[in-house]
Specification:
Chain lengths: 121, 130, 98
């Protein structure tokens, strides 16, 4: 797989209630392992995935925060968060466990337009 | 044009596999090449040989099987999604000491690398969500 | 330019709004499956369609018919399955909302 493409994964769903957020991160890790240029955007309810202090033992689920911490190990650095989605939920970057770049709607449109493939999860 | 399709919805619970099937048939009829169908999330249930639809309902696993056979389309079922939903091939059945396997012919169990590979080698990747 | 597909009713999901927000001028939205309920005149979602002339709107005819709906063809053009493929080819990327 010598060809390198720009993949954008848009994570729009909250963790734990559905397996899709986990499975989106798995795609990001796989794409990175195959040397693809991966960007992640957390938008809408997806921003809840980034909250600090998740303790999921009591619901018998794997800790999503720990899943996200694998992104750094795989060298995925292009992690964006939708600024409007944070504001709507009364969140700020201080609440987030991953180092993210907060982006405006115009910057999000540019991300969408400049990548090769978009996976919406 | 080379097109790959990702199916996330379960058959008989969501419309996704049926919509994707119509899309794939139309794409082939228009002269496009379907490079790969990637079954992920609940979509992996499409590969379950044990599915028995009602007699007046479309048999989605059979439909996928025949379209893949007739057009030599690669149909890949994500291993992580599949085994936790009880869709396993003989190799996995022996690895996990299960009494039977149920992966339908024409489907192949493999990893997410096949999805990444599909996105590299296709002009379009289209997802059918749950 | 991007083809967005929407497969949920606007009465049960916010994805129509979320999708419109991300649309650039010249993008298209194709309503499929339960997404086609957004195309009916005299509703809030139809107003949203009218307010976004910069976006091209389509609905999948088999899904409309199955649900007993029609489209006015004014703001929302219907396409059959072949038309769906043509749209996926015409636009550079497909983004699925569900």
């Amino acid at each position: 797989m010598s060809v390198q493409k720009n993949l954008l994964l848009i994570c729009r769903k909250a963790p734990y209630g559905n397996a899709l957020p986990r499975e989106a991160i798995d795609i990001a890790l796989a794409a990175s392992a195959f040397d693809q240029n991966v960007s992640l955007l957390f938008s809408g309810d997806g921003v809840w995935q980034l909250l600090k202090q998740q303790k999921s033992d009591s619901i018998n689920s794997k800790n999503h925060g720990k899943v996200l911490s694998a992104l750094a190990l795989y060298g995925i650095e292009n992690i964006y968060v939708d600024n409007d989605s944070l504001k709507q939920r009364n969140l700020s970057k201080d609440n987030l466990l991953v180092d993210t770049k907060s982006v405006t709607i115009n910057e999000i449109k540019a991300l969408c337009n400049n990548c090769d493939t978009i996976f919406n999860f | 044009m080379i097109i790959s399709v990702v199916i996330l919805g379960a058959p008989y619970s969501t419309q996704a596999p049926a919509t994707a099937l119509r899309f794939a048939k139309s794409a082939i009829a228009a002269g496009h090449t379907i490079h790969r169908i990637f079954f992920y999330h609940d979509g992996v249930n499409c590969a379950n040989e044990l599915i028995i639809p009602a007699q007046d309902e479309i048999h989605l696993p059979n439909e996928w099987q025949s379209i893949a056979k007739e057009n030599t389309i690669d149909m890949v079922v994500c291993i992580a999604s599949a085994i936790k939903r009880g869709v396993i091939d003989p190799t996995e059945a022996s690895r996990y000491e299960k009494p039977a396997s149920n992966l339908k012919d024409q489907f192949e169990i493999s990893g997410l690398g096949q999805l990444v590979d599909a996105s590299i080698h296709s002009d379009r990747v289209i997802t059918f969500g749950p | 330019m991007i083809l967005h597909t929407i497969n949920k009713s606007p009465y049960s999901s916010a994805i129509f709004n979320d999708c419109l927000r991300l649309c650039s001028d010249g993008d298209a939205i194709l309503f499929i499956e339960d997404g086609v309920y957004a195309t009916q005149q005299g509703t809030d979602s139809y107003q949203l369609i009218e307010q976004h002339p910069e976006v091209n709107f389509f609905a999948l005819a088999p899904d409309l018919e199955a649900r007993g709906l029609t489209s006015d063809q004014a703001k929302v053009l219907t396409v059959d399955d072949n038309g769906f493929v043509e749209l996926a080819v015409k636009y550079q990327k497909v983004q699925s909302w569900y």
